[in-house]
Amino acid sequence: MLLADAAQVADGKLYILGGGWSVTGPDPVPSAVAVKVSVDTPEFDRPHHWELFLEDADGAVVQFDTPEGPQAIEVRGDFSASEPPGAPVGTPVDVPIAVNFGPIPLPPGARYTWRMVVDGESLPGALCSFTTRPLPVPGATE
Fold it and tell me: What is the model's pLDDT at position 139?
């Protein structure tokens, strides 16, 4: 997983713009989570379900008040992979996933983590944490 300014999947590849940051803000800006899931042979031709959740420093899912009540920041999707034609037996397949977000109004000076769950399981490397900068102190110089 990688944080980016923007990401896109095209022709089985992951295109990343402004990737690899871990500090943002304090003002909300658009962002993306870029993910590469490696699918091994035993998992070929089976449907897989993924979920992406934004959590605070305590591991609680981040929620915002909406007219319909509190809503979590979460995205879900499905994928499957097949054996690549002509590839040696046992060759894993990479599945690229790009999730783009508009500006998310997160409190400044805090820590957050995107957590991806595949088929109900947190996988190794399926976390990506970042910090929002604190608000500048009026009159302070850098």
Answer: 75
